[in-house]
Amino acid sequence: MSKHILVPSAIGLVTLGALAAGGYAMASTATEPTVENGSAGYVAPSRESEGKLSFTADVSDDSGVREVRVIAWPASSELDPTEPELRYVDKAECRSTSDGTSRCTYTLKVTGRDAADLAEGTWYVSVLATAKDGDTTFVPRAATFDVTR
Predict the structure, then answer these.
(1) Cβ within 8 Å of residue 84, ≥6 positions away
(2) Are 132 and 139 in contact (CB under 8 A)?
(3) How far apart are CA 42 and CA 93, in angstroms?
(4) Helical H runs in the chain?
(5) How far apart are the C-alpha atoms of 6 and 9, rounded to whole Å?
(6) How far apart, in whole angstroms, are the C-alpha atoms of residue 131 and residue 59?
(7) Strands of the sheet with 101-110, listed across from one edge
(8) How far apart are the first and last CA of the chain?
(9) Nearest CA to 129 among 27, 29, 54, 38?
């Protein structure tokens, strides 16, 4: 093989290797959304007002937050929702607090009739956060709260 062909081929291989490594480095710096500071609470309804279940969390991703889906479930039920199941539950309302970070809040009104059917005891909140770039994070137990009568 001629030296004229071998040297350019070697340079081409080194260049391709550098581009591939750079592409890998860029791909590996992509981040999944984070769900932090999650808190949940339950207020039982009274004769004067409805009750409510609420969940709030700070959700961040370098591309921004597209949506956050939330479901609350009683520990005694042993439901333990999965990520695919959370794609079909209620969305939290998210408001941007800075570049890439949103404060997301989910509130569910609870009537006296609803409260009578709720299992007493510990409940969990599961969350599926989706970033604008399509990355997702599933948090099976983002918060815990108690339902009492």
Answers:
(1) none
(2) no
(3) 18
(4) 3-28, 83-86, 112-117
(5) 5
(6) 9
(7) 34-43, 51-60, 101-110, 93-98
(8) 86
(9) 38
Q: Residue 58 and residue 81: Cα distance in Å, rounded?
A: 21
Supply the pTM of this predicted model: 0.78
- The predicted-structure confidence for 61-101, as pLDDT tens digits, reads as follows 999 999 999 999 999 998 999 999 999 999 999 999 999 99
Beta bridge partners of 136: 130
Supply the DSSP symbol for 120: P
CB atoms within 10 A of CB 16: 10
CA atoms 147, 140, 79, 49: torsion sign: positive
User: Hey, what amino acid is at 40?
Assistant: A
Q: Residue 62: what are its φ and ψ, rounded to 5°?
A: -60, -20
Structural contact between residues 55 and 38, judged by C-beta atoms closer than 8 angstroms: yes
* DSSP tag of 57: E
Nearest Cα residue to 142 out of 66, 33, 31: 33
Q: Identify the residue whose tokens are 């260049």.
A: 15
Question: Which residue is listed with tokens 């984070």?
Answer: 34
Token output for 83? 């990520």
> Tokens 């290797």, residue?
17
